[in-house]
Write a structure and sequence with these properties.
Number of helices: 22
Largest sheet: 5 strands, parallel
Bound molecules: adenosine-5'-triphosphate, magnesium ion
Distance between the termini: 44 Å
Helix content: 40-55%
Length: 496
């Protein structure tokens, strides 16, 4: 039993651990003064507040939360010695509940059940939900999460483009529309929308996905429909296809435009007849799944170029859900929110998570100016890299490494979207190597420079197999490469 998002206000790792037991995403605030900002940013389902901050802090936090109309349960994490007087005092202030100690998992689970039951009944009230959607742009919180619509999907954004996508998502999810088409450039969030619809329609059923670009026609056919034993050379066992595996859940056909043309009529038949046969089989199997298809390409153009069947196009293009590119004027406003969200939810350097609190104005302006050919995924990568590189409490311009070749690297192929030859792992390896060289392999100093613990440093050195002698050679190569393409990587080196 867990909640999507918990904010733990405490310096104590035990309280963080308690939150991690029950939250899929946990955000920490070391001080009550930072807590409200984080809460407003991430809009959690629960706030755990350490009782060791003095009651005045709790009172102040609750009052300020009230001012911002934040209605999120605050549970006080008490000491192991139960103190009824203290717990009563907190409850009077408006706390939701009180835990007897930092390992009171049982009571926390009961509280979570209560919260879930409460939100379960309200979230599913369609009238309330529609009203809330109408009012969403007036909300005080900085973010709007699709999760409010759909279980565990965190879709951040409050731009007009995202709000209208979310409205459409909800309408389609609430209808009987099947198949469902989701279109948008790479990294715009198509899979996120697919999962949101799935969670809204049939949260307890299977979600299966297949990338139509990744398999040959024969393999894709047997992946989708399954096959009977002996139906072709190599079919030595019966195979259940994804259409059957999805049951009454969802089958997502990713990159539908890449489906081999000879397979397209077979898919069309399933969509029309709601039944299919395994390859080589004679038994009709009923298809109960919601079929979703996503595409980076303009399917109409594909039809005109005779790469996509017109009849299939009309069958799937009933109520398409469109995701705008991040650079579009209707969505650009979300860049800052997304950057802050990715900063707060980054897991790349757990030790730094609470230390890096924000981005500088210049850094944000730079992000806002970029065209983001890799869209939200590209932005997420840049923020993760910045977290890795940053040694202060704010991400500054020097941490924002936007690969100048990124635009060229995004080819017309729908399968791309990443920067070729440059990865987060490479950046991490390089930075660690530099820190070690700078400090003459004094690991304590290197760890301090990197803002990580010695234990993490040891683990990373092992993970990347960084050796003293090897380092000299590989670093020279990296320096050359940086000079040529990723010039801003030299800035953090200077900082070191
Ligand atoms: N609005 C959003 N809020 C938070 N994260 C997002 C949002 N949109 C996308 N992301 C994140 O960006 C990444 C890419 O999203 P997703 O996989 O859904 O894109 P896609 O459109 O399916 O891309 P592709 O076409 O390359 O398959 C994921 O890590 C996803 O969680
Ligand atoms: Mg996708």
């Amino acid at each position: 039993m867990s909640l999507q998002r918990i904010v733990a206000v405490s310096k104590d790792p035990e309280v963080q651990r308690l939150a991690q037991q029950c939250g899929r995403e946990v955000f920490g605030a070391d001080e009550p003064a930072d807590a409200l900002d984080i809460v407003r940013t991430v809009n959690p389902n629960l706030i755990l507040f350490d009782h060791r901050f003095n009651p005045g802090h709790v009172r102040e936090f609750l009052n300020r939360a009230d001012k911002y109309s934040i209605d999120i349960p605050v549970v006080i994490v008490g000491g192991n010695d139960s103190d009824t007087e203290l717990s009563a005092e907190f409850m009077q202030m408006g706390a939701y509940d009180y835990l007897q100690g930092r390992q009171d998992y049982k009571q926390l689970e009961r509280i979570i059940n209560r919260i879930k039951n409460k939100s379960g009944t309200t979230d599913r009230d369609p009238k309330r939900e529609n009203k809330r959607l109408e009012n969403v742009s007036e909300k005080n919180t900085s973010y709007f999460f699709a999760e409010d619509l759909a279980g565990s999907v965190s879709m951040v954004g409050k731009s007009d483009a995202v709000l209208s996508t979310l409205k459409m998502t909800k309408l389609v999810a609430g209808s009987r529309c099947n198949p469902i088409l989701i279109v948008g450039e790479t990294g715009t969030g198509k899979e996120l929308v697919a999962k949101a619809i799935h969670t809204l329609r049939h949260p307890n059923e299977q979600f299966v996905a297949v990338n139509c670009a990744a398999l040959t026609a024969n393999l894709l056919e047997s992946e989708l429909f399954g096959h009977v034993k002996g139906s072709f050379t190599g079919a030595d066992r019966e195979k259940t296809g994804l259409l059957e595996l999805a049951g009454s859940g969802t089958l997502l056909l990713d990159e539908i435009s890449e489906m081999p043309i000879e397979l397209q009529p077979k898919l069309l038949r399933v969509l029309q007849e709601k039944s299919f046969r395994k390859v080589g089989g004679i038994k009709n199997i009923t298809c109960n799944a919601t079929i979703m298809a996503s595409s980076n390409r303009n399917l109409k153009n594909e039809v005109q170029a005779n790469r996509f069947r017109r009849d299939l196009y009309y069958r799937i293009n009933v109520s398409p859900i469109t995701l705008a590119p991040l650079r579009s004027p209707q969505r650009r406003g979300d860049i800052r929110l997304l950057a802050e969200y990715f900063l707060k939810s980054s897991t790349i350097c757990p030790e730094k998570r609470n230390k890096i609190t924000s981005l500088t104005k210049l850094a944000i302006e730079t992000l806002e100016k970029h065209d983001w050919p890799g869209n939200v995924r590209g932005l997420r990568n840049v923020i993760e890299r910045a977290v890795l590189l940053e040694t202060t409490d704010k991400i500054g311009l020097s941490g924002i490494i936007i690969d100048p070749t990124e635009c060229d690297e995004i080819s017309d192929s729908p399968t791309t979207g990443f920067i070729k030859g440059f990865s987060l792992a490479k950046a991490e390896r390089e930075l660690i190597s530099r820190a070690l060289q700078k400090t003459g392999w004094q690991k304590t100093r290197a760890a301090a420079l990197l803002g990580i613990t010695r234990a993490t440093l040891y683990a990373k050195v092992k993970q990347y197999n960084i050796e003293r002698d090897l380092y000299v050679a590989s670093n020279t190569a990296v320096e050359e490469q940086n000079g040529a393409s990723v010039s801003s990587l030299s800035e953090p080196a200077a900082a070191l």
